[in-house]
Amino acid sequence: MKQEDIYIKHDGSVLEVKIGLTKFSNDYNDYRPQQSLNDLTPTEVYFG
Fold first, then answer.
1. Which InterPro entries does its entry note (predicted)?
2. Structural domains in the chain (count)
């Protein structure tokens, strides 16, 4: 997470980092398939 979002994109305020982390978390859980989950997203696995 640090390498993909915080270190690359944010050098400003705490609010900017919080917004960035929220966006990263949503993208990771809702749109990024995971190999360990048979190429499904965590949200797809959770909600079946």
1. Integrase_cat-core
2. 1
Is the residue at 34 inside a domain?
no
- The pTM assigned to this predicted structure is 0.66
Bridge partners for 40 per DSSP: 34
Do 41 and 29 form a contact (C-beta atoms < 8 A)? yes
The answer as to whether 41 is a domain residue is no
The model's pLDDT over 1-47, given as tens digits with 9 standing for 90+, comes to 656 665 666 567 888 878 888 998 999 999 999 999 999 999 999 99
Segment (H or E) for 3 = none
Domain-located, residue 20: yes
Containing H/E element for 1? none
